[in-house]
């Protein structure tokens, strides 16, 4: 039995000052860094996902509806796509990037940066059976990543204080949905 921590999309564009900021983005980045320093050693691996858009079609809009279309964010190789500076990249074993040419809310659509492997087979190759999930945004990518993790057969815990929502009410509803799907909310 082995456990992974999955840090979802804690990228500058999703934090205050970014193009699609969540109110608690900076706070969550700080909480995650503190957690990595105090508890990171308890995980068999720590991975991070990144929204990494090149040309994601209608996912970007000048007139976004904030449901299916969004302001330009996390363009590949831009500062906005970088992981928040509070988080020490040395503490993360692998990065999984997603959404090059489409919308991709789930971290399980992400491919490792150092080999052509999706997140689920990468974790399973390391005998990971349990995953803890933190990150941004509770109502979008954390939700989709959590639901996929359950479908992939992992035991899933969501560390909800270390998650930031675009919309607080939608975030609360998403947490309920994740719980109903089988995630343990911690
Ligand atoms: C996200 C909205 C649009 C997220 C990504 O990371 O939760 N939200 N693209």
Automatic annotation (TrEMBL):
Superkingdom assignment: Bacteria
Gene Ontology terms describing biological process: pyridine nucleotide biosynthetic process
Pathway: Cofactor biosynthesis; nicotinate biosynthesis; nicotinate from nicotinamide: step 1/1
Keywords per UniProt: Hydrolase, Metal-binding, Pyridine nucleotide biosynthesis
Keyword Metal-binding: yes
A GO molecular-function descriptor: nicotinamidase activity
Record flagged with keyword Membrane: no
EC number assigned by the record: 3.5.1.19
PANTHER family per the UniProt record, alphabetical: LD05707P (PTHR11080:SF2), PYRAZINAMIDASE/NICOTINAMIDASE (PTHR11080)
Family: Belongs to the isochorismatase family.
Protein's name according to its UniProt entry: nicotinamidase
Organism, as annotated: Corynebacterium callunae DSM 20147
